[in-house]
Amino acid sequence: MDLALLFSSFANRLNGRKITQQRMLYEALRDAILEGLLPAATRLPATRVLANELRIARNSAMFAYEQLAEEGFLHVSRRGSIVASVGAQTKSKPVERRPQSAQLSRRIDGLRREQPTHPIAVSFRPGLPALDEFPMTQWRAAIARAWRKLEATDLGYANSAGVPELRQALVDYLKVSRGVRCDIDQVFITDGTQTSLDLCARILADAGDRVWVEDPGYAGARAAFKGANLSLVSIPVDADGIAPARSHWTQSPPRLIYVTPSHQYPLGSVLSIARRMQIIEEARAHGAWVIEDDYDSEFRHTGSPFAAMQGLAGDTPVIYLGTFSKTMFPALRIGFMVVPPGLSREFARTLGEISRQGRAADQLALADFMRSGAYTRHLRRMRGLYSRRRVALQVALEQHFGELLTVSGGAGGMHLTARLNAPLRDVDVCSAARSEGLWAVPVSEFCLADTNIAAYNGLVLGYASVPVNEADAAVEKLARIVRSMLP
After folding, report:
1. Cα separations in angstroms, 88 against 93, 106, 272
2. Could you give the CA distance from residue 393 to residue 253 in angstroms, rounded to a whole number?
3. Confidence band (pLDDT; 50, 70, 90) for 88?
4. Is the pLDDT of residue 187 over 90?
5. If one looks up domain 114-131+377-485 in CATH, what number appears?
6. Helix and strand tally (H, E) in the chain?
7. What's the alpha-carbon Rg for the chain, to the nearest Å?
8. Which of 85, 188, 312, 437 has its Cβ near the most Cβ atoms within 10 Å?
9. Residue pair 180/309 in contact by the 8 Å Cβ criterion
10. Do residues 319 and 203 touch, judged by C-beta distance below 8 A?
11. What is the reported pLDDT for 112?
């Protein structure tokens, strides 16, 4: 092998990157060994000879050899410097490499979603709050106060349940606003609902156990349960929420039951009291746990909200999940779980082994934000704002779509669901909309693979981040796209 040619070729590949001669020689030799250009057992020239040939300092050659020897690329002895066998791919014996994607686990099949490839002018993304309306000044002040309170000892790992100040603030808030029955020992702070779901799946069920999921339902829950190797059983949803039949209880009894009772995601129905009580009683009888995801119950636009399932009785087998992603902002990454009293000690012990808490400043700031009344004032203002934006979207949909859409789910939350009354596939409509700068989500995306998708053909339209004065033009554009696709 002509090392002078090798050195010169490598220098030409640097594309202007500035490195020392000794580093250049090291990288050139290392790459040649890895690529099989310098096969195992090749004897390299002495450093003095190589330095003269390449017209570089001998110290540079010595550095390169020493570094390669330390990393196992060379064997150095009295016989000289010999290339080691490092399992390199040689040109004479090419090795077929499997694509990396083929090495991913089977658990993640079907979890990867299409990402936007076009600039988005208006996003109807469900669950996205009005970030530009967040009271940044008050939040910065709360953050500053929190950091002033911290000491050096607070910079280490924290209690796995979260800081006591935020847990107690949640106890006080949830008792009044959601009718949740709990004390501080039952509250655990997490990094958000997805983390809470993952913990529930791992702590409360074993691989192969059945978990009932709403169909259509929240894809993030399915991802968490699938990642824990649980067996998913789809339960249909109607106007009164999740609707398990008697055969589900007898033929496929669950270990876990996942529900969004206050505002079913994505259809928007509210789980009736009769069904809530029935699910609780059947769960007790079958030794199952109910996971209540109360993701956006703070935003109720008509009538009085139902209290949480967790608080309907003193001994409900319900794990209550909440998040601040909708009421505050997603990047905060703070959620929480309220577990039954009988689970609190085991949860505390288990979480201490499998997770680590931190970000004490953010949790203390949030506790301050809640105690000061700033959180309640922010929620009150957002309820009014979202209510006006919901009305603007509904009016625009009625005006520009007419009978092409049937709208539902407007009593609460941050999104509407619109059924397509036309021979079009919702995925095709959303794809066409994205290419025109509108981001909408197809209802069929929330269905399990074996679901009758034709029965859930529509659009999920978030309105929280769509200003009133932009709704009409965006919907008119969406309607024009849909009408252009009609046969």
Report:
1. 10, 30, 65
2. 41
3. very low
4. yes
5. 3.90.1150.10
6. 15, 17
7. 30
8. 188
9. no
10. no
11. 53
Euclidean distance between CA atoms 199 and 386, whole angstroms: 32
CA-closest candidate to residue 204, choices 285, 323, 281, 317? 317
Fold type of domain 3-83? Arc Repressor Mutant, subunit A (1.10.10)
β strands within 93-239, DSSP E: 122-123, 187-190, 210-215, 231-238
CA-CA distance, 282 to 437, in Å (whole number)? 47
Q: How far is CA 7 from the centre of its chain?
A: 47
Structure tokens at 139: 């939040």
Sorted by where each begins, the domain ranges of the chain are 3-83, 114-131+377-485, 136-375
| Mean pLDDT of the 38-67 span | 89
Q: What's the burial of 309, exposed, middle or buried (CB within 10 Å: 0-12/13-18/19+)?
A: buried
Highest-confidence segment of 89-93, 113-117, 342-346, 373-377:
373-377
Percent of the chain with pLDDT over 90: 63
Confidence class for position 90, pLDDT limits 50, 70, 90: very low
CATH architecture of the domain covering 136-375: 3-Layer(aba) Sandwich (3.40)
Cβ-based burial of 374 (10 A; exposed 0-12, middle 13-18, buried ≥19): middle
Three-state secondary structure along 142-170?
HHHHHHHHCCHHHHCCECCCCCHHHHHHH
